[in-house]
Amino acid sequence: MLGWLFFLLPVAALSGWIMARRHYKRRYRPQESSFSPDYFKGLNYLLNEQPDKAIDVFIGLLEVNSETVETHLALANLFRRRGESDRAIRIHQNLIARPSLSAQQRRQALVELGLDYMSAGVLDRAEVLFLELLQQPGTPPEAPKQLLRIYQQEKKWQQAIDMAKQIPANNKTNTRALIAQFYCELAESLLEKDQHQALNLLRSAHHYDADCVRASLLEGRILIKIGQYRKAIRVLQHVEKQNHYFLPEALPLLYTCFDNTNNLDDFKDWLESLLTRHHHLTSARLMLTRLVEQKQGTEAAQRFLYRQLHQHPSVEGLHQLIMLGEDNHQALIPLIKEVTTTLIHKGDRYTCKNCGFSGRTMHWLCPGCSQWATIRPIEIHLSALEKLLEPSR
């Protein structure tokens, strides 16, 4: 009750102020009361714990005219921020029903009503309102933005693409990068049905965002599936220029391509050159270890990885070294193997550079901040051991 009292008393005061202002402007006779009886009725409802009736009275007191439209909007926005979307909807509907509104005021009220529906989760009604606003002259910029939000939530990717194209790119919203992600979503839905069309969609993704790593990885997978390994190699190696942090996702695919073209020696040369450019890329170091083992045997792979770990220690590298030598030191190896296995499975594998969200699976749309393509793979280095070894709470 106290919460409603503190919330609605300012509304009551505002209503009284408006009526007093009208009194002085119209120069009522001194003996006449400047307050309507309804004002005291509203206060009575409020004090008797009947906030719904109090709201109706105070809304009625705020006569809709050019001077009070902003007051109505502010009151409704307060309700929406408090999670009282149904009350905000009532106020905005009451406002829109008044014929005295100007075209601009009506557009603003419709936008706010659409936001109320969004807050209440009634997306279909919000969509209808914002689509109506799109057909009107002087479309408010909020309409296509909210429609874009709706289509993303409903996974209507083609509609999301069409709407994003109507929003000018700026420093806050890179719409071209968003459009690329939407094309990737469409392509993923066609991976098993129509690979040719999926490739066309990925070309559109690259057109809108040349640095879209997701499109390159998807294209590489499709090209591998249809046996175009050399073309897949070119696409996947380009990931380094797009964003080298995603190379751990591309390397297994590249191994498949080079292996199927009987060209693992070239892959080894490329990995070695890659490590000269990105010294701490553990995934490349482990892939080289795999190639050394295939070519020269387990002992050579152990020696190679042992030397590498002295320069660039990592949990994954330590784990792989143990796996290579698990036939030796039978008493010690199971314990160390258990520790490193726990670390690898317990540690987060991906993190968002925007909000810091981390998890064990890849998300192209961050669950933490709802931004596209901000999550990237991470590797567990020995500096993180202390944190990972802490018991779960």
UniProtKB/TrEMBL annotation:
Residues 350-377 form the LapB rubredoxin metal binding domain. It comes from Methylophaga thalassica. Fe cation binds at C352, C355, C366, C369. It holds the Pfam family TPR_7. Residues 21-393 are cytoplasmic. Modulates cellular lipopolysaccharide (LPS) levels by regulating LpxC, which is involved in lipid A biosynthesis. May act by modulating the proteolytic activity of FtsH towards LpxC. May also coordinate assembly of proteins involved in LPS synthesis at the plasma membrane. Keywords: Cell inner membrane, Cell membrane, Iron, Membrane, Metal-binding, Repeat, TPR repeat, Transmembrane, Transmembrane helix. It is a single-pass membrane protein. Belongs to the LapB family. It is found in: Cell inner membrane. This is Lipopolysaccharide assembly protein B.
